[in-house]
Amino acid sequence: MSDAGLAAATERMRERGIDARAITVFEHYYRQLEEGRTGTIPEATIEPLGDVPRLVDLEVSDAERAAALARTVVVKLNGGLGTSMGLSGPKTALEVRDGLTFLDIIVRQVLALRSAHGVDLPLLLMDSFRTREQSLAALEPYADLAVDGIPLDFLQNAEPKLRADDLSPADWPADPTLEWCPPGHGDVYVALASSGLLAQLRGKGYRYVFLSNSDNLGATCDPTIPAWMMREAIPYVAEVCPRTVNDRKGGHLARRLSDGRLVLRDSAMVEPGEEHFFADNERYDVFHANNLWVDLDVLDAMLQERDGVLGLPIIVNRKTVDPSDKSSTKVIQLESAMGAAIETFEGSRALLVPRTRFRPVKTTNELLLLRSDRFALDEAFEIVETTDHAEPLIDLDGHYTLIDAFDARFPQGVPSLVDCSSFTVRADATFGAGVRCVGDVLVESDGPVTIPDGTVLAEAAGDAVAGDDPAGAAE
């Protein structure tokens, strides 16, 4: 039945106009799925990464930085809808701070780099078919953003979702768009080639691409890194950050024992029963930030040599065809991670970077922190901290999961967190203007509660807020 399923799936891809290289990649992963491949990496096959060079120690001149930046392109992965926060459009259309969206800040970061170094630094969004229209509309006010005929985006490929029972393409007449899915962000390499952009960029003299998630505003294009790559002929660099207890679920790099290659192990690639190794912050003391730098010349040569198949490890993602309906048809999505490409590039390197280069917003917890006075935007529109205190732990309950509910409970803005070490809310609480959190703050209540304007919430404030005298929570 699987041969028939593969034939039906690839026929749908051809009818949709998917590039032949992307179809070949899909066939590659389909056959791996048939063979029972899981893409897991057993602990016995790897060892810790060991010491890696640090960004702060790289010594390159201003001239080298400018020369490298002039040959660099910024690509932001922009295919996500932010459905976990209740968004229906591109996540990057969400306002982050100071009235600016993710896209506004990304664009202004790029424009600031151009001005500072006197180079034309292209910005490309890898959009999905669900994010393209709204994202390009958001870029229209930036008339000077496009560079020398290079488009502002390219489309991530699409592939059919497969029925979990027989691996045939899933049908969902109620919403046929749900029959399709993106093939994971590992598709970025093939999508660059199949869109024609890889050839176009190389033809215009661009050599390096900086790849990062669009919801990570810390991931700015630091010209020191491509200058280092140019000097030492490094084809691929993955940024890593010091790992903390909060990063135990994040992917990490390791060294494969069989050939010494660097490999990425994400949570989905952990052998069952070996989760404790994966979460061991002492054994694996850095995590993968998903900020990547790639030599376009080397990438092009590899894609041509391998017919577009880089051979990234498979990720088998099991879902339902309608993610909002758990009773709908069970499906499999075949995916790959772009960071897994580190094992395919001869001479790839890891680079230890500051935590400031990792500022993702995956939930409203991170959004609250980024909107607070703990951070600000500098003149280059980079996210900077306003205090040297450790970041507070933010833990909001289910009343704040969706963005509309979140905004409704902070109508005058989020509380001050400059002097806060943790902020936990176990209540349907609406916060007034000028609320300030000090130390470890807990707000809990069995019913709706309003925190008045100007309240100072201090340690053990939750008991007072939950009682009859909210003023007891204030100093």
TrEMBL record:
Entry keyword annotation includes rRNA processing: no
Record InterPro entries: Nucleotide-diphossugar_trans, UDPGP_fam, UDPGP_trans
Pfam families from the UniProt entry: UDPGP
Binding annotation for UTP: 91, 156, 184, 215, 362
One Gene Ontology term from the biological process aspect of the record: UDP-alpha-D-glucose metabolic process
Record's keyword annotation contains Nucleotidyltransferase: yes
Single GO term (MF): UTP:glucose-1-phosphate uridylyltransferase activity
Chain positions recorded as substrate binding sites: 185
Keywords (A to Z) from UniProt: Nucleotidyltransferase, Transferase
Cross-referenced PANTHER family: PTHR43511
Family: Belongs to the UDPGP type 1 family.
Protein's UniProt name: UTP--glucose-1-phosphate uridylyltransferase
Biological source species: Nostocoides japonicum T1-X7
